[in-house]
Design a protein that fits this description.
- This protein is an all-alpha fold and 129 residues long.
- Helix content is 81%, strand content 0%.
- Helix 2 packs antiparallel against helix 3 and helix 2 crosses helix 4.
- Bound molecules: protoporphyrin IX containing FE (HEM).
Amino acid sequence: MGKKVKKQRPVNLDLLTIRFPITAISSILFRVSGVIVFMALGILLWLLDLSLSSPEGFKRAVVIMDCFFVKCILWGIMTILAFHTIGGIRHMLMDFGYLDKTLAVGRQSTWIIFGITFVFSIFFGVLVW
Ligand code: HEM
């Protein structure tokens, strides 16, 4: 009997058929963005230190920043920081009770933070290039 019940359990080993809700995706991205921002601090502080060290150091920082690949990384860091900041503000609005903790509000506010981040990412693209 026990064996039969086990066999009838629904199993889904095809991971590609699993669809995460938008709120789950943003939750994972929020954590990942926090870790990336933490690691990015090292790069940004190093670049700031280099640019402030001497006039030559500043020129070196300008040359480093002139590279397309470096610009892509900087644009990525700025976009991820914007996502984390906007997502963080959403978290705090929920914590302080300004946003309802319902599924509908959670989904709507998630789309809104994605939208605001998208606008910021375009702005950062214009700024960096
Ligand atoms: C140096 C910049 C920052 C770093 C390295 C950083 C890193 C992190 C990390 C690693 C987490 C944990 C994420 C998780 O457990 O899912 C976190 C959470 C959080 N961050 Fe940031 N963060 C930064 C800036 C900001 C800013 C600017 C805001 C502003 C709004 C913010 C708001 C929050 C909030 C509200 C949480 C907690 C969310 C919760 O309740 O689970 N963070 N941060």
